[in-house]
Amino acid sequence: MAQSSLSSETSEQCDDTIQFVKRFADEFQWQDLSEDVVMDIGCGDKLNCCIALLSQFPNVRAIIAVDKESTVFQMAQVRHRRIQYCVGDILERDSLKSYEGKMNKVISTNTFHHIMDKEMAFRNVYRLLKPGGEAGFFFCVNSYLHTFLTDLSEIPKYGAILKDTYATTLYPSQQGEQYYKELLEKIGFKNVRVFEEERRRSYPSDKCFKVFFLEDLKINLKLSPEAAETFMAEVLELYEKKFGRKEGKLGHVCVQLNLWGVKPMEI
């Protein structure tokens, strides 16, 4: 059951990535990428973005797949002559300095919500682009689960259990469409386009929800099996009371941001 829940989440992320790449291409009217080098920030071992790019633009000149974890490339499920692998951290400018000013496009999906200093990351993306280069970002800016955890952690009996299991400042409430549009414009991006969309995921069963909740937060490392069972029974009841069910199933809703910008041509 845990594997089924994980597979469902992975499949949804893959579908989201395919859709975002298509939107990016449509927004900027991509036709032929045979002369373009595209960098994928936070590629992960599934290489969803790289696969989506190759599927839609098989003649792309090259894709630079970047992840800060070297083990990602050891586990990578795809090998392709047009994909080059690079261990690098978008927050560490020096780790990607050799690519600065050389990328036609930079794209990142399901990664930037994990980055605390987003302004620094966006600035480093800007540096990577050639003049006229385009950047696209797809990441979560709000989440039912995060809201629920924040509320739950304020209850003393749960606060100790949840301590250090999630980032409390992951989704600042004031950081939405307008915030990110203005941030990219401040950095120097032009033709900035942005919109939010709500995504709902239903869990096949309450057991799947419990597995996702415990494993995602690593709470199971802190509790005995008996304590974890009691904790999850209480959590499930509170979650249902706060968010209800749809067609009898618990669900998770997140708000995803679609964000694009262009580095202006040099004058």
From TrEMBL:
Domain of life, source organism: Eukaryota
An annotated Gene Ontology molecular function: transferase activity
Keyword Ribosomal protein listed: no
InterPro entries: Methyltranfer_dom, SAM-dependent_MTases_sf
Domain Methyltransferase: 34-135
Keywords recorded for this protein, A-Z: Transferase
Protein's recorded name: Jhamt
Pfam families hit by this protein: Methyltransf_31
Lineage of origin: Eukaryota, Metazoa, Ecdysozoa, Arthropoda, Chelicerata
Keyword flag Transferase: yes
PANTHER family membership: PUTATIVE (AFU_ORTHOLOGUE AFUA_2G14390)-RELATED, TRANS-ACONITATE 2-METHYLTRANSFERASE-RELATED
